[in-house]
TrEMBL record:
Gene3D superfamilies: 1.20.120.1560, Glutamine synthetase/guanido kinase, catalytic domain. Residues 200-651 form the GS catalytic domain. This is Glutamine synthetase. It comes from Podila minutissima. GO terms for molecular function: glutamine synthetase activity.
Amino acid sequence: MSSSANEARKGAIRDNVLRLSREVPYPRKDGKPIYTSEFYGENVFGLAQIAKALPKPAYAQFLQQMRGGQSLDKGTADAIAHAVRIWAMDKGATHFTHWFQPQTGTTAEKHDAFLTLKSTHGVTGIEVSAIDAFSGSQLLQAEPDASSFPSGGMRTTFEARGYTVWDTTSPMFVQHGPHKTCVLYIPSIFISYNGDALDEKTVLLRSTEQVAKAALKVLALLEPVPQGARPITSYVYTTLGIEQEYFLVDRSLYVLRPDLKITGRTLVGALPAKHQQMEDHYFGHIPSRVLATMSEAELELYKLGVPIKTRHNEVAPQQFELAPIFEETSLAVDHNLLTMDVLSKVAHRNNLKVLFHEKPFKGVNGSGKHCNWSVSTGQGENLLDPTIKPETNYRFLVFLLATLDAVQRHGSLLRASIASASNEHRLGAQEAPPVILSCFLGEHLTEVLNAIEENRPLKNFSNAEIHTIKLGGTALDVKVASLPDIARDLTDRNRTSPFAFTGNKFEFRAVGSKQSPSFPMTVLNAAVASSLLDIAEALQRAAGDKPYPSDADKLKVIRQYIVSTKNIRFEGDGYSDEWRLEAARRGLPNIDNCPDAFDELLSPKNEAMLCKLGVFTESELLSRHLILMERYSKDLLLEANTLRTLLAQQVLPAAYEYRSVLATSAAQIKSLGMITCPELKTLQTTTPLVESLQDWIDKLDEAINNVHLHNQDPSKEARASVKYLLPAMNGAREVADELETIIADKYFPLPKMSELLWF
């Protein structure tokens, strides 16, 4: 058995070496390449197409509906449905689907054909003819089975009805499938029969509305306009840029790893001699097969209107990253999920497999999904832009401090939003942000806040004179005569910070690469909205009887929040033991396991904030807590059972076979009267490990049984998973990995990390 499995492994390695890159030509016209901008978004039915389909008054009403100003009437919906059907069918579409985001961490879709039958009364009786049709009511909503998705008890098996509803803020698009056909995708929310949110998008849209309302309230106080004049802006939205990290491995090797196929990570596997210690992979030359995959994926994504901007090698071998241009948050989330889907499909065509798991390989860097978040006006002004004089830019200071206040007051909630069985392997692993939430601002912006608090001039960092700091940057002399001076940002980066200010935005680095960004962004939006509302109240109190606060009133409130947010600001090494002690002294939560993190959803402070804003109802929050607990236990039980099977059916049989060969060889050598026997020494080393691994399999069985004892209570089951499964899996892996380094390669059936990590 072991030898045949090893042959399959060797064959996969050979195929990997011999496999050529797939070539997909970029669009051309008259033999010349077409610029990306010319075909960008060609598979998207956006506002430009809707404007062509509607009369101007109807289109203006549709824009009002998008902003929540009014409901979408049937005539407008029918007109859009007719136009999008013609557009999609001209591209080869045969079906449409409401594309939504259930609480599974991925997307879901059910395809319905445009084809329908029409009955008419003819001379010979009823005549049936086939037609293509798509109505406004079909566009607006559909009905998937709500009982088959995670609901946290809000839906039972016999309560099956649920609705998907078109999200007009996210454009429809087509994706090509087999036989040169395609499907029309309608981005949607997913709610129960009673209107409860069963998905990730509904609560995200609610949270963005709350940020907009709170921000407009603050701006009206900070920048009042004369009576009768139009406000500076009537619309505020959050923006998001998502850096997506991922691994690529050869599919022939991937299919021989049951742990990768089932759980997304290697449950056994010794670290190879060379991994990332040479620091030569980051920003290195992109392998040809990988570049071919990236280019093909980008081609599809550009046509889908996803603005991919950068691509590069990441730190670990076979780890890569892509990042888009910033977009409105909900659309950015849609595009990120679409990006993950397209990457997976394109990698498959290139005989590769994408691994989005946060830690697919023990001992090398894991993957994150860095979420770069900011707030903008309808005119495109970034409210987190410090400008040249941040010390007098009250708008910037208020929105900066509101974000710091949100993280300080609801850091435990943000911690819950990024907690998962997979992300726990990455967080705090000396490669990723720690689980203690803190904010990095950089020394210059910190000086701005300190100077305002202490009511003194700003320091000049270059010569210690007192003057105004210009955050636009300083010149940096590279001391090479042929090169020009370059601009240096006055704020450095801190990769150990889970929530860092990076020039004109905050980077939430702790989000996991596999998870949807919806929930973390929902929580962040809600927390910031709550803080903005509190600041608005503080400004009104400071103004007293005056209609609007004066500059002195604004500074008073700003100083108050500078002082109150000191504990969350940290400029040092987030990996250090000293920071853990300092964080404890400051009272910052250090939540080191998922069940405790999930419980923070229901803490009085966090629950009150989320429900008061209307982002969640109490029942929705309870259901999400239950879903997260259940998902965590299921993930760990899946890993434990997979590991148990892997050890019993592959690793141990390989060890048995190798021991048998060693024992036979040692006996033959001993019969010849030789004094020394290296085979016997190896056998004596291997045997205790085999016995230990057998013991660990028994411990795994016991741990699994202990968890099942609590399967009627998701919270207890999740805690039992932490208590029993994690130690058993870690102990079994340690022995298995040591055995892997001893068993002769020809007997080992599983592709090793040295083969998975290097093409």
